[in-house]
Amino acid sequence: MLGVIGSEHHTHPGGGVNYLCLPLNPIYDKYKDGFQNSGFVYGTEYEVNTFNPFKKNLHDSEAPCVVCFVKSRGSLLMMPARNVCPSGWTEEYHGYLMSGYYNHKKGYEFVCVDEDAEYVPGTQVNKDGALLYPVEGRCGALPCNPYIAGRELTCAVCTK
Fold first, then answer.
1. Residues near 125 by Cβ (< 8 Å), separated by ≥ 6?
2. Please, what's the largest Cα pairwise distance for the chain?
3. pLDDT tens, 70-107?
4. Is 98 exposed, middle or buried (0-12, 13-18, 19+ CB in 10 A)?
5. Which of 57, 60, 55, 66 is nearest to 45 (CA)?
6. Contact 96, 54 (CB under 8 A)
7. How far apart are CA 106 and CA 114, in angstroms?
8. Taken in order 35, 106, 117, 56, is the CA torsion positive or negative?
């Protein structure tokens, strides 16, 4: 299933906190057009203007998503800070750990974005909504050895 990543706007203090894989063909049931007092969902852009670890220029492009299904493997693990899977696990892909900006008034889950990330065609315009930033380690409670302060973290998605 291919879709787009969505979430609440990065400046909103409330609403949902996780990224969603939204289908390209939504189905509506009961609804009332217009804005009600509710939560919102926006498209999600890559924010990689100061550091783009990816093979393509993704900055300000909308981020697509896919649902990974492997019939023969029932467990899925997102391995942060490693771009390989533990022994006995199968790597589905590896890339970079991403989330929201540390100083925005919104929390987001961490997601693993494939190093060969794609973008939604025709969306390379800055519209800001939910945003994806690379995640880097910060020393303190996180040990500075082996972690290196300010270095972007990798990730791998593994199944077993």
1. 60
2. 54
3. 778 788 899 999 999 999 999 999 999 999 998 888 88
4. buried
5. 60
6. yes
7. 24
8. positive
The residue behind tokens 């939560």 is: 39
Scan for tokens 């990224």, then name that residue: 19
pLDDT tens figures, 13-70: 877 788 888 878 887 788 888 877 777 888 899 999 999 999 999 999 999 988 777 7
Q: How many CB atoms lie within 10 A of CB 84?
A: 12
Nearest 5 degrees, angle CA 84-CA 86-CA 91?
Answer: 50
Residues 58/52, Cβ–Cβ less than 8 Å: yes
> Do residues 71 and 63 make contact, with C-beta atoms less than 8 angstroms apart?
no
Sign of CA dihedral 106, 61, 98, 149: negative
Rounded distance between C-alpha atoms, residue 51 and residue 19, angstroms: 21
Residue-wise DSSP of 15-72:
S--S-EEEESS----S--SS--SS---EEEEE--SS---SSS--TTPBPEEE----TT
What's the pLDDT score for residue 74? Answer: 86
Q: pTM to 2 decimals?
A: 0.78
